[in-house]
Amino acid sequence: MTPATERYDATSNESAPPKPASRLILTLLKRSRGAFTLAIAACVLNGVASVTLVATLNRALSQPSSADSTLAWRFALCAVVALATRIVSGVLFARLSQDTMAQLRERVAKRVATAELRDVERIGAAPVQSVLTDDATNVSMLFFALPNIVMHGSIVCGCLAYLAWLSLPVCLLALTAIVVGSFGYYTGDKRAIASLEAAGKSQDKLFGYLGALFTGAKELKLHQARATQFVDGQLGLAIGEVRDHRRRAFSAYAVGVGWIIFVFYVFLGAAAFWPSLGVRADTPAAAGYVIVFLFMLVPLDGLLNNLPTVNAARVSLDRIEKVMAEFGGLSTADVQTPPSSSASQASFKTLTLRGVTHSYFHERDERMFRIGPVDLTFRPGELVFIVGGNGSGKTTLAKVLTGLYEPEGGVIEVDGKPVGSLERPAYRERFTAVFNDFHLFDALLGIVDPNDPSRAQADARANALIGKLALDHKVQVVDGAFSTRALSTGQRKRLALVIAYLEDRPFYLFDEWAADQDPAFKAVFYEQLLPELRLAGKTVVVITHDDRYFPLADRVLKLDNGSIVSETYGPEPALANG
């Protein structure tokens, strides 16, 4: 089991209970109420037309003298209506299926995007990948099953009503068969749902291992025994668990469907051979029962075979709600964001940490690790280095400083005003950060609008920066996107620096940015780029181990075991506004 999956499983029982699946599906259908209503109406009309068609056929066969042109035209009209309504409902439900899957993926993606970083790191990608693919597909398949369920259900109900008109005892016998068969089906249904839920949990593990198959590709290729144990062992077991759980689920459904069909065969035998029903003395009536029963048998089988799809969708909807509840966080309507991310609106005179603390589980030492209490003040136009050994809390402090982690104690203030949970999203807009585990997107997202006719100017500025960073022979920005990201880690960090320059925010943070650069470019970074940002009035914080460049900083903060143990000042005073 991957660490991300372990974290998810460990906390899944502590989360708030998910909303009912029906509530989520109703929310998703709000934008398509008209189409959904029309599709359901078409399915019901199809069922009515189909039952009328078989009744007309039965009358024509049992009473040849009444088989005139009127019955023929009625039969033809019913056939056309059945065809048209099936096509209409099929097209509408196909659209609803894809629209619903898209909406589900959008909702989950937005929830992850607005969640706190701690929740994103705790849950990991595997459960989200699972609900965005397998579970979203299960929900979309519901809309392929619904037309069959409604149409087949309408046909079965119509056939029962027609049986009641022909013979009430035979109809009661058919209802008894349905009730008896349903009890057996329900027992298998409970086992099937339990197996589907277990399959969903195994699916989370499977996606975690599939991610490791790519992120650990180097380690697997360097060690054949490790690769064999991983692929045949951990990954293979996860694949087998999903397979076995789903086998049990759909086998239970197959047994249930077979049981109900068998019970109906018993009903047919009773209707044909039970003398007290009076069927044997009335051959035309017996033929009518057989025709109606045989016509009902196919839609009944189709109805039952589509119920597993409904149950799988229900289980998936519950899983989706559970994952979304795990992420929690604020809704997009609650957060306070500035009308623009321009530097002037995000500018500040002082940014202060007062008694800030934060705790997290330190995996290397298997204990809770605490940083703080930290008391720091940052001003525009100063360059601050944060130094310390590995595991001393430098990156965690940086995440608290930038608003990615919420302080457990103390407060962060901007110009004397405290930053609360509602203000935190707007507070984060002041920062541009390149962390050690940064991600480079393939386009200048949030910087260049693809529909802006002046984007060529942004491309030119980006390419000028790329040339300044000696990457113009490798990559270019075309229409707001990088021509390639197939670069070394150090080169991709330079592209991240290009994006940082283009964002033009008042506070810059670099986490071990120079660790992957050659000595010549390290010198460019420390001696040219950082002083340029400081002279531009930016606050610059650099996490670094390059002690030869410590004298360039206005302040050097040393962390040890989560606490600032020393603060030294450089030869030049910091530039401060106000």
UniProtKB/TrEMBL annotation:
GO terms for biological process: peptide transport. SMART domains: AAA (SM00382). One of its GO terms (cellular component) is plasma membrane. InterPro entries: AAA+_ATPase (IPR003593), ABC1_TM_dom (IPR011527), ABC1_TM_sf (IPR036640), ABC_transporter-like_ATP-bd (IPR003439), Cyc_pep_transpt_SyrD/YojI (IPR005898), P-loop_NTPase (IPR027417), Type_1_exporter (IPR039421). Its main location: membrane. The chain crosses the membrane at residues 35-57, 72-94, 139-156, 162-186, 252-274, 286-304. GO terms for molecular function: ABC-type transporter activity; ATP binding; ATP hydrolysis activity; ATPase-coupled lipid transmembrane transporter activity; peptide transmembrane transporter activity. SUPFAM superfamilies: ABC transporter transmembrane region (SSF90123), P-loop containing nucleoside triphosphate hydrolases (SSF52540). Residues 351-578 form the ABC transporter domain. Keywords: ATP-binding, Cell inner membrane, Cell membrane, Membrane, Nucleotide-binding, Transmembrane, Transmembrane helix. It is a multi-pass membrane protein. It comes from the Bacteria. Residues 34-312 form the ABC transmembrane type-1 domain. Pfam families: ABC_tran (PF00005). It is found in: Cell membrane. This is ABC-type siderophore export system, fused ATPase and permease component. It comes from Caballeronia sordidicola.
